[in-house]
Specification:
Elements: E1 5-9, H1 14-25, E2 29-34, H2 37-49, E3 57-61, H3 67-81, E4 86-89, H4 104-132, E5 135-139, H5 152-172, E6 178-184, H6 193-196, H7 199-207, H8 217-228, E7 239-242
Parallel strand pairs: 1-2, 1-4, 2-3, 4-5, 5-6, 6-7
Bound molecules: NADP nicotinamide-adenine-dinucleotide phosphate (NAP).
Amino acid sequence: MDKKTVMIMGATGCTGSALAERLCRSGYKVGLMGRSQEKLAELKERLMACGAAEEDVATALCDATVYAQVEAALVRLELQLGDTYGLVNCVGSLHLRPAHTTDIDDWQEVLNTNLNSCFFLLKAGIKGLRKTRGSVVFIASAAAQTGMSDHEAIAAAKAGVIGLSRSAAATYARSGIRVNCLAPGLVETNLTAAITSAQALKEASTAMHPLGRLGQPEDLAGAIAFLLSDQASWITGQILGVDGGLANLRTKARA
Ligand SMILES: NC(=O)c1ccc[n+]([C@@H]2O[C@H](COP(=O)([O-])OP(=O)(O)OC[C@H]3O[C@@H](n4cnc5c(N)ncnc54)[C@H](OP(=O)(O)O)[C@@H]3O)[C@@H](O)[C@H]2O)c1
C-alpha cells in the first residue's frame, strides 16, 4: 500500500519532532516545515537514523506567519512526497502577561504565530487534502477553555484555533476531510522551559494537573497520531483535552 504523507509545520519543535519520529516509525512519509534550515537538516538526519528512508522525508523552509511562504513550502513538499494526507500545525509561542502590560506588538505576534499560522496552513493545504480525503490536526490549549490569569493573548489566539477547527470540520466534512484539535495542559517543551526549569513554578504547575505530572511531547504526538489514523475515521470537529485533567476536573485537596 502507498505510504500516506503528513506535513508537519513547526516540525523542529519538541512536539513536532516527537510526532515526526512517531509517524516515520508507523510508515508515513513526512514533510517537515520549519524556519531553520539547520534544525530541519538535523531532524531529517535523526529520522533517518531511526530507520526512515531518505525519499520518505522532505524539508521546506517557511515562516509560518507569511502565507506565501507556507503555500510555497507545501507545493514543494507535495512535489517530492505526493498529495497531503495529514496536515498538522505544531507552531506556537507563549506570552504570559495580563492585558494591561501586553504590548500591541506582542498581542499581534501571538495571534500571527498561533492563529494565523493555522489558517494559512489550512488554506494552502485544502487542495491536496481534497484529493486524499485527509485529516487536519491543530493544537489549541486548555487555557482557551478555562479562564487562567495572565493568559489573555494566548487564550484568545487558541480559542480562535478551536473556532477555526470546528468550522473547517463542518465545511469540509462532505469532502471527507476531518479536522480535530488538541487542547493541552502544560507540556515540558522548549516553549515552557522558563516555567518548568524553575523548581517552585514547576511544582505549582504540576499540582494543577490532577494526574500529578506535566505532559511530555510524546503525549501530544500520540494523540495527534491517533487523530490522523484510520482508527479515528469517524471523529471530526472534536477538541481533545490532553491535559492530565487540568481543564475539566476538580480533585479533593490532598491532606
Ligand atoms: N508546551 C505546552 O505546554 C503547550 C500547551 C498548550 C499548547 N501548546 C502548543 O503545542 C504546539 C507545539 O509547541 P511545543 O510546546 O512543542 O513548543 P516548541 O518546542 O517551542 O515548538 C514550537 C515550534 O514553533 C516554531 N515556530 C514558532 N514561530 C514560528 C514561525 N514564525 N515560523 C515557523 N515556525 C515557528 C518553532 O520553531 P523553532 O524550532 O525554529 O524555534 C518550534 O518548532 C504549539 O502550537 C503550542 O502553542 C503547547
